[in-house]
Every structure is written in structure tokens, then in C-alpha cells.
Amino acid sequence: MAPPVSPSRISILGAGSWGTALAVSLAHNGHDVRLWARRAEAAAEMERTRRNEPYLPGAEIPPGVAVTSSLNDAIDKSDVWVVAVPSQTVRAVVAPLADRVGSATVVSVAKGIENGTLLTTSAVLRDVLPAVDPDRIGVLYGPSHAEEVARGRPTSVVAAFRQRAEAEAVQALFMRPTLRVYANTDLVGVEIGGSVKNVMAVAAGMSDGLGLGDNAKAALVTRGLAEITRLGLAMGAQAPTFAGLAGLGDLVVTCFSQHSRNRAFGERVGRGETRAEALGHSTMVVEGVRTTESVRALSQRHGVEMPITGAVYAILFEGLDPADAVGHLMERDPTQEDEG
Predict the structure, then answer these.
(1) Which of 29, 39, 83, 199 has the fewest CB atoms within 10 Å around its CB?
(2) What gap in Å lies between CA 98 and CA 143, rounded to an integer?
(3) Ramachandran quadrant class, 171 (left: phi over 0; alpha: psi -120 to 50; beta: rest)
(4) Contact call for residues 287 and 262 (beta carbons, < 8 A)
(5) Bridge partner list, 141
(6) Rounded to an integer, what distance in angstroms lies between the CA atom of residue 271 and that of residue 55?
(7) Residue 16 carries which DSSP code?
(8) What predicted TM-score, i.e. pTM, was given to this entire model?
(9) Phi/psi of residue 98, nearest 5 degrees
(10) Of 77, 111, 197, 217, which is the active-site residue?
(11) CA-CA distances (angstroms) from residue 262 to 128, 191, 253, 267, 332?
(12) pLDDT at site 3
């Protein structure tokens, strides 16, 4: 058992399902947690009921969590910032706080690639927080549905920073009997694995919606991992990362879980709904939609072949019928398995 960690003041920016689950977990570790909710009425309701029913039903928010709609109050004197807003809003939320960060360590738990800039969330944070040592900006990624973490079900994730000392410090902060954290210094690989898997989960959902069966879905997930790995290596990542929790682990849980918003969205599209119709069924952000745009652009920038990503993009943004996309993928020219 790891030695106990001294209590810290931790700010969690974003009171969605994952931000709330982490607030619960960190408070149980004895930390002083400030959970920021964008809407004042939502923050007041959580403070009053000690619940976040719209996003994490049934989970009790412990006394060690203070909920606020004031960003200034949320980050006051914090040792650690946990950025848990949707990936496309990280810049807008954090940039105005640049002169308040002090010596805090900044941990992103948002999984995605920013549209336009094609930056991972840690790169966005480095861009908007120039006063922060880049080594103190990293991520916490892995197969970790909030619903299960909040219920104390065994979960393993990865704390990834450029330097091992920072990764191990965050590892110790989050580690619990039911939340095992591994340290990793392949920040690029962890972020590419944890972000692109959402695109593959959309594709897996489409496969479910089309009723293609287990053989097709197994092939899609396997070839999806190959695409993720090729892109990651082209961007300087390390191959072993993609066989780990932020690669294979996160891909599997997101493609198969009942909790996966990306898979559920894809299933609705596979059954014939439009992108807008399918998005209308979720009260939470489906990260894979916007990330598909960025990943396709990254594949073009780096000259990496990503046929599944291309098919998902064509379905979501160019009107390709999902059934026709299957035919296009299956009828590609024969190749060696390690070639694409």
C-alpha cells in the first residue's frame, strides 16, 4: 500500500459526470475539493441536495466537496487544477484564468483534439497558461466510466506527464483502493489513444446499429487500434502505450460499454438517424463527433492512412450512408495486416 498523501486543495473545473465522480473520489481521499459548475442554479442544487442527478444519478457528493459557480472561488489557493470540461471548451474556460494559476499542477481529464489548431488538451493548456512549467501540465486518461468510479467499482487509469516525478505525484494524489493509477511519460501517446478511441467508438456504435455482428465489430476495433497506433507513432508517441490502458483499454470500454455516449450515438446513426437527431438524445457532449473532424485533419497532415476515421467523417459530415461505408471498407485493395 502506498504511503498516505498530504491533503491538497483541488479545483475541478466542470461538474459533468466525470468531474463529479472525480470530486467524490478525491474527497474520499481526504482532499479539500472545489467543484465548479457553469450554471449557478446547478451549483446551488448540488450544494443543497449533495447530488448531481442530471449527470451522475445516485452518487452522493461528500462534505469535502464545495460546489460553486464562481471560477475565482473554485481556483482560489488551489494546489491542483483538474480540467473536466468538454475538450472543445478547454481554451475558453481556462484562458481567462491564466494569471491566477500560480504554482498549481494542471491535469486535463478532457479527451479530444481541438478543432482548427489540432492540439491535444494538454497542448491547449500549455498554450493558454504560458506561466506554468510545461512539465506540470498533463492528463489523467484510461477506461473509466464515471458511473462506475462513483460507485467504487475497480478502475485503472494513467497519469501522463512529460516528467516521471510529476506523473508519480498525480498518481499518488488520485490513487485509491478502488482507483489504481499508473504513471506514464508518453503524454502524446496517452492523449492520442484516449482521444481517437472516441472516433472508433462512434464507428463501433454504427456497427451495432447496422446489426453487423460480433465478427465485424471485433475487426473494426482491432483495425481501429491499428489506426490509432499509426497516428500516434507519426506524432512521436511510443508503441507500448497503445497496448496499455489509454490505448487498448480505453478503446475496448468505449466501444462496448452501455455507458458510452459515443457508442450510443453511433448506434443511432447506424439505425438511420441524422447526426443532429442522434445528438439530440444526449444531455452530455459526445466528444467523438468534433474529434472526428480533428483526427481526419491530423491524418492528412501526417500522411497517415485512417480508413475507419475517414468513413466516420464521411457519414457524419458528408452524408454517406453507413451501409455504403461498410462496403467501401470491405472492398479496399488487399494488403498486409501491418500495412493498413
Answers:
(1) 39
(2) 30
(3) alpha
(4) yes
(5) 158
(6) 26
(7) S
(8) 0.95
(9) -55, -35
(10) 197
(11) 28, 17, 11, 9, 26
(12) 45
State phi, psi for 176 to the nearest 5 degrees. -140, 165
Q: Is 197 a catalytic residue?
A: yes
The three-state secondary structure class of 321 is: coil
Q: DSSP assignment of 34-61, as one string?
A: EEE-SSHHHHHHHHHHS-BTTTBTT---
Distances (CA, A) of 192 to 179, 188, 206, 290, 339: 22, 6, 22, 14, 20
Strands 137-141 and 105-108: parallel
User: Nearest CA to 221 among 190, 242, 191?
Assistant: 242
Element (H, E) at 147: helix 146-150
Distance of alpha carbon 150 from alpha carbon 152, whole angstroms: 5
Confidence of residue 4 (pLDDT cuts 50, 70, 90): low
Tell me if 57 sits within 8 A of 259, measured CB to CB.
no
For residues 199 and 312, the answer to whether their CB atoms sit within 8 Å is yes
When pLDDT is averaged across residues 208-221 and rounded to a whole number, the result is 97
Reported as half-sphere exposure (CB side, CA atoms, 13 A), residue 163 has a value of 9
User: Per-residue pLDDT for 111 more than 50?
Assistant: yes
Q: Is pLDDT of 212 > 70?
A: yes
For 131, phi then psi, to 5°, come to -80, -10
How far is 279 from 8, CA to CA, in rounded Å?
38
Residue written as grid cell 478502475: 155
Q: Is the pLDDT of residue 2 over 90?
A: no
Write the pLDDT tens digit of every residue in 149-192. Answer: 999 999 999 999 999 999 999 999 999 999 999 999 999 999 99
